[in-house]
User: What shape does this take?
Amino acid sequence: MFSRTPSADAPGLELYAEVVLHGRVVATVDNHGQIGSDAELLQLGIDMHALSADQLPKGPDRAQVLADQLAQAVGGYARVKLDTALDQATYDRLEPPPVLVDQDDPYNLKLLKIMQARAVYQQQTAMLISSEQQAEADRTAARLEAIKAKPNRERTQEEHAFLLAHDSRMAEIAAIPNGQRTADEVDYMQKVGGFVNTMAQVRGAERALYDALVAAGDTDAVRAMNMIALTRHAVDGAIVLPNGVTFNPGLAGITADNVERFFRHCLAHPAEDDKRAFHALIVALERRESV
Assistant: This one.
């Protein structure tokens, strides 16, 4: 026959609590959360099926709930056995007791072989599933890289959907309204989305400025920052502005003076929205410089 080693299972079988009524122990609960005997409880008319603790996993947490329920049901109290009661963390670390097999019983030996074969099968199945999952993850990663390598205009609708379904950060950023994305979020979206990466032209402290404008809800100033980034991306070296001034957008920092004298003049025929955006950025920069 099969049997568990008593000494190995002893901590789980030790008393967790006693249920006491009028100075008499009417029930006990071990560290597994099992009632030692229900004879007294049945005599007291306790409905054992009404105890919700039986639905909890084994262990001291269940034992505590069960002891409290029993005590309330009989009108007594639960007394935790401090010398033998375990806490849940200690219980969870207990190793399951080994199973001893009667070596003289052919039936038990045959059953043991079946159990061992089943264990090997479960292990192999788990490894196979893990291998298949890894292979699927590798295929997904490879396809994502292939999609990200394409410019946005060359991607199919299915590829756009695949990217959003498998790149959680891209999906989160795409859900943020325009003008409310941080510099890093715009940078990521441009790179992964296959767009022109103008945000690469916004560097260092300028990114902190961009994020501050976003946080302040200054969408006009944010728009002006994006126009400056686009100008830097499009222009390599010095340019002559419509007003005859020569300057290098890549070397000029984003200050109120530079926006007033240079950046706002980079557009040959600025729309009213563009003028308003540059004015908003100048005001925001002057406010920051005056602090």
In short: The beta strands are 2-4, 15-21, 24-30, 77-80, 99-101, 239-240, 246-247.
